[in-house]
Each structure stands twice: as structure tokens, then as C-alpha cells.
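so i finally got all the pieces together for this one. its three components total, 925 residues if u count the protein bits. some of the lines might not be protein, just check the labels. i wanna see the whole assembly predicted at once instead of chain by chain like last time, that was a mess tbh
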Amino acid sequence: MARSRFSITRLPGFGLIAVLTFVMLYLPIIILVVFSFNAGVSQSRWDGFSLQWYQAAFNNAQVRDVSLRSLWLAVTAASIATMLATLAALGTTRVGRFPGQTMIYALINQPLMVPEIVTGIALLIFVAAIKVQTGYTGMGYLVAAHTAFCIPFAYLPIRARLETLDNALEAAAADLYASPIQAFRYITLPLMVPGILAGFMLGFVISLDTVVITEFVKSAGQDTLPTYMLGQLRRTVTPEMNAIATLFLALSLIVVTAFFLITRTRGR
Amino acid sequence: MSHEIDITGLSKSFGQGAAAFQALKEIDLTITSGEFFTLLGPSGCGKTTLLRIIAGFELPSTGTVRINGRDVTSLGPSKRPVNTVFQSYALFPHMSLSENIGFGLKMLGKPKAEIRATVDEMLQLVRLEAMADRRPSEISGGQQQRVALARALAPRPRVLLLDEPLSALDLKLRKEMQSELKRLQSETGITFVFVTHDQEEALTMSDRIAVMSAGQILQLGAPQEIYNTPVNRFVADFIGDTNFLKLRVKAVDAGMAVLELPGGKAAQASLPDGMRPATGALVTAVIRPEQAEATGADEGDLHATVESATFFGTDTHLHLTLADAQGFVLRRQNRPGQPVPAPQSRLGLALAPGALRVLED
Amino acid sequence: MHGHGWKWLLCTPALIVLLLAASGPLLIVAVYSFLSPGNMGGVVWEFSLEAWFRVFFRRDIFEPDLVEWNRAHLQVFWRSIWLSLQTTFICAVLGFPTAWFIATRPRHTRTIWLFLITIPFWTNLLIRTFAIQEMIRNNGTVNAVLMWSGLIDSPIQMMFTEFAVLLGMAYVFLPLMVLPLYAAMEKMDFSLVEAGYDLYASRLNVLWHVILPQVKPGFIAGSILVFIPAIGAYVTPRVLGGGRTMMLGNLIALQFGQGRNWPLGAALAMLMLVVVVGALIFYLRVVGRNDEARRG
């Protein structure tokens, strides 16, 4: 038997547990995806390949409706949150300490710390009161709730990006006759773009995933894809749900991969 | 020669109250047009602060800065006819080399054709024509350095400020860039203000040097002047290697003193202006290691015992002990076949005429 | 540039949205927990401690002076804490070897493994819960495989049990344990491990005396990151646990649905918030002490 070099990083059994963990992590998702292409209704018996459940999902008016609402909400909330987070990042990064800074950090990160169910019922109470006062029942509540929830996620990569910028770049711009506005327009802003894009993507994915807050804030007829799915899970589930979930997963996967690539190349 | 930069009564303090730190103390300085002027000193001496005030990145606490006769003390960096080469280069990573070099002209609102012509000229000047469309991350450190120079030169500033621009380069590249900088300065005729802590760099490149310490200019002059006639112990110590000897005064006469050397012989030494030590007083005298010569053991002005020898390639440093136990370093140029003196061997030292100088402590 | 006003001005739009749609409503919840319930949900603006009383106690319907512990609530609290602790433990046991595995891969493949752990973290929690449901349903994958292999004759009931909730939570929160553990291991000084082996330590000795002390901050961070969302869990127990294995989150939601007791729901939500903030403060203090110890 060949003698192997003593490895300092080897710990007995760790590799096996790790590989099993990865298998357990992905097996349920893979099975979910595989059976979305099943010709039969069963989740355990393969009856041949078919796209019928995708067809069913596309033909389901309600699914189309809630999917479009989810996408619209995610784009709107993530866009607003990214703009607000960009301004806040400019106000709190590379500016030295100032009074109230800790409070601003606490407020920005608060949605990360409070359980969604608490935020959900808090918004339910608040929105109910406003509805009684104003009679407004539109999408504004959901947009505001999702925006607030997305702000800390959008803020994170933008701030991280800003912190890596060399202060000397703006000094160099000023030295080369740029006004403060020109320095921002030509130097700071273009260099912030990867952070802003990453922030938007995180916000988008988070809004798309948010189910608890939406569940408590939505008015009648404002179901999003996640709340629709949550309602459907109580009934007998057909592989149509697998098809919807698979499409949803694919969308998240694309955005997360793009996010990963953007944040990885930003060092250049 | 006209005045390019006039600095009068310039002070700068950071912080307030008891924690205040005075970075610059009442600096008066005139830099003439077209000279290569160097601010030299250890880190924390205030040289970079002075440069940043000239550039407009810092406001002085008191005093004024004039450039070409115009008071610019309260003007921002974008309103001054000076450009800076930053220590970190600060090249814009999202722009090509051309765009970097053309940025200043674009901000000045110059027409596109003029910008393109100047950028081409600058690329040629720093020999980077072939790389015009590359990004800063795609070129080497030495090339980035040249782009930073071209970018600062492109708007044709009256003054170019250079903040330790060579400190990030390795030794060989640094030597190359030193001559490159000299060439650029003579070709463009622009006044260069150069900040460095490297005395050798300062000596080889500058027309004039200001040696700074603790927020003050200690000595201002040409490189030879600074090296040969340092005004005080700090300058003598900071520039080059120096032997410091404690010697007794035998007689004083018209700017010269006769000092008693260890071993009993006497030697003449020049006195700094206004210094008249009493006969019999102890003074500090300095002499450069290469300004003495080894002689036979019983000849010369001084007698010494060899402690050790260190080989440096071009020359050898002999660490000696004098008759009264003071240390002395002798630098001797190496020649083929010349033997290295053995430890504990004895030799004599002949001092070059005029080499010994008394300094105020 | 001298005043701080412009910094605040830049933050103001974000702060307004956060105050209106995140922090402000929390204050209203605190206020509501001291009001009286309305008939059809909502509140009557009368001060009352009844909601807080009913969080822990109940009165006999016929004799209001007869007070006893609210066993149903206490059971839910206990289940929430116990399931969250078990989830944290399972995630730690599986997460540590996984993080170690990733941290000891060669640099170029490490990114891929890290990416594989990150994907589930960013994919929808509801979908991952749904995937577990499809696995453990009576006619789901696990039962089908077991019956096909002849190990069992009739499906095992796994859905709507505490086991299902535990499995689901461990599954969805596992990346939250692996990521901080990995971060701690990446910063680890591996020459200390070599020094351990050089000084005659066995693998177990090195793990216990050299590796664990160095990755302790990662362990604490991971445990808090898993424990907090587990305590606040709502979707996973709702889908996998059903009505019989309710957790605190579901009990809160119930007060705003069928229960129609908003003040009680508000009080329960405040209780949850206290537990979460307590866990966070504990975390910050432990981390702060570690930092001091390192500096000192």
C-alpha cells in the first residue's frame, strides 16, 4: 500500500458527514425538480417525461396573476430600496463618526433582527388603522413593507463597495479640476455600480422570497406567488406546484449567480 | 528666475486643546520656476502636510500660499494650477489609460480634438503609446507610475507635486524612474515639488532640498551644500553616514577652531556662523566616513584599532576605536589585491583638509 | 463639510421608510399589548394588563377568581425553545464538519463549495419547506422508498409531528451555521494545528485544544444566527407541523386570525422580541469579551 503524507487538515469522519450534508441539502430540491417533469401525479413513481405540469401552470390564470404581481413588487421594492440604501451608504460610509450614527445603523439593520412574524403582525395592526382612516387598499402597503425589509440587504453590498474605494481617487479628481458633482458623476458613482447592482439583486431576491410579511399586509386579491403557494400547500398538491417551484428556483438561482459573479469580480 | 510658490508664515495644527498636534510651524519658503525642489525628512516631519496644503487638500491654520504671485490659500484643489502624483497613484480603475490622462482636460472643458492630441503626446512622453486602451489593473506598477505622471502633466500645470511617488517600486525600477523623472522635468520645464524620506533619492534628483523635522525646515540648499555643510546634528545624521566626535577646543580664530584629537595631535575645524566656543570646552565635530584615509600605524592625525570590517562590494567599512575609546567608521574603496586589516590591528588616519566641522548640538 | 447635517439628510429617505414600515409599527404592537380586545379583532382603547396575564395564566370560565397556568401556552413556549435548541444542535453537528470540509479544499474549488452552501441560503424558504414536505408525506419519496425496499408495509406518519418541524428547520437554517463557521475557519492559523501535531497531540487533542478554541466565535455566531430565526419560525411549523405542533410564531398569528385577540397576540409578539433581543445581547457581550481578550 502506498504511504500517504500526513495531512494536518484531516479529521476522522468529517469528510463523510460533509458530503452527506451536501447530499441532504440538495436531494429534496433535486427530487422536487425531477418530479415537476413527471407525466403522472405521483411524487414517488416515475411515469415518464412530460411538460404537462408546466403547461398547466402557464395556463393557470391565477398563477400568472400572482407571478406577475410578485415580479412587479420585487422590482419596485428593490429599486426604491436600492436608491434609499445608496443615499444612506453615502451618508454613513467614509465620513468619520458622527452623532446618531449608531442609531442610524440600528434602524437600518432592524428588519434583519426582528422575526418576520413580529414585523408582520405589527404591519397588520398599523395598516388596518390606516385603512380605516384613509380607505386606501392599494399595493402601497406591500411596496412600503417590502422596501423597508429590502433596505438592509441592499445597504450591505453598497456599503461594502464604498468602503473599498480609495479616498485618493476623489482627491485626484478634485486635483484634476473636477467639481464635487463632477467627481461624484465620473468617479464615485461609476465605481459604486457593482455594489448598487448587487444591492438591487439581493433586494430583489429577498422581496421575491418574503412570505410572512406579505401574508399579513396584503389586502384581498393581492396574493403574491409565495402566499399563493402557502395557501395551496394545505390542499392536495399536484406536480403543478413542483413546476411553479422549479421556475421560481431557476429565477432565484440566476439572480444569485449573477450576484456572486458581480461581487467576486469587484476587486478588479 | 521668478518665484513660482511663495509660502509665508504657514502653520498647521490637527486636533484641538491638549490633544492638538502641530504638524507645521511657521514655514517660510520660496520655490523658483522650473526647479526640481525636494522636501526631505523622516515620516511625520510635516512634508506631506506641506504638500497637501500646496495642492489644496488641507487648509493651513495660519499663513498664506501664493502660486505665481496669486494668493490661493483658500482655493480648493480644482481651482489651482497644480497637479499631484499620488503615492498610491490613484488611477481611476474604471477608465482606460487614455481616459485617465485626458480626465483633467475634460474637466477643464477643452475641445475633444485638443484632448486627444494632448493625450497622444503624453502617452508618447511616458512611452506607453501601445497601451492607450488598457485599464490600470492590466499594466505593471512602473507603468502605472508613468500613467499617473502623464495624467498630472497633461493639463500643463505650473507646478507638479509628487508625494513619495517611487516608494511602491522595487529598487531597480526606482532607479529607472528617477532618471525618467529628471528627463520629464527638463523636457517640460515644469516646477517639480517632490516629497521623499529617501536621502539618496533627494541628493541625486534635486536642484534644491529642504530638510524637514518636527514641522520645521532645518536646512535649505543644493544637494552638495546639504551634504558637505550640514547645519546641525540632525541634518548631518539624516543625510549620509557621519562620525560624531566629542573633542576639546584648544584655540578659536575667525570661524575656525583648533581641536585636540585623541592621541594628542591637533586639527583645524570650521565653526558654524555665530558660534564661538570657549577654549577648553567640549564640542561635537563631524566628519564623513570617506573623508579620512588609512595610513601606516605611526603616521596620520589619529591612531585607531580595528574592531571589525564589513564588506559592501564597492567599498569596505572599517569599524575602528580611537585612542580615547570613541568609535569611528572609515569607508575605504575596494581595489583588487588590497588586504582587509585584521581585527585588533592598528592603523593611522589622515583627515582630509577641511573635512572636520564643528556642529551645534 | 463641517456640519453633520448632510449625512443625516442622505439617510433621511431610508429612515422615513424604515420608521414607517418597520420600527414604528413595533411601538404600536407594544401599545396594543396593554389594550383590551375588540369583539371582531382589533382593540378597544382601554388600558388592561389582561393580555399579559393571559400569556402565562388562565381563568376558569365559571369562577374568574380561579387562576391556573395556561398550560397550552406554556407547552407552545417550551416546544419553541426545545425545538430551536435541538435545531441549533443538529446544525452545529452537521455544520462543523461541512464548514471544515469547505475550508480545507484547495482555493479554486473552495469557491464552488461555498457557492453550493450559499444557494439554498438565498432560495425561497417556502420552496425548501415544500421540498421537505414532498419527501416526508405519507405518499412521499421517503415512504415510497421504504415500502419499495420492503422495510415497512404501511407509510410512517411523519408530517404534522415535531420531528417534521425539527427536520424542516434544521434543513432550512443549516447554511446560517455553516457560513460563520467557515468564516472563522478561514481566518484560522493553520500553523497552530501543525504545532499541535508537532507537540505530540492526537487528532482528537488537536480538534479539542487547538481548533475548537479558535473557531469558537464562529460557533457562537452560527448558533445565534440559527436560534433566532428558529424561535421566530412561522412558515416551517405551519406547513410541516400543522395545528397540533404549533410554535410561538403560529400562536401569535392565531390571535390575529381565528383567536381574534389582538392584545394577546401583541403581548406574545413582544415576548418573542424580548427573547430574540436577549439572545442578540448575549451574543454581542460574548463577542465583545472575546475581542477584548484578544486585544488584552
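Chain A has a mean pLDDT of 90.
The radius of gyration of chain A is 24 Å.
anyway lmk what u think
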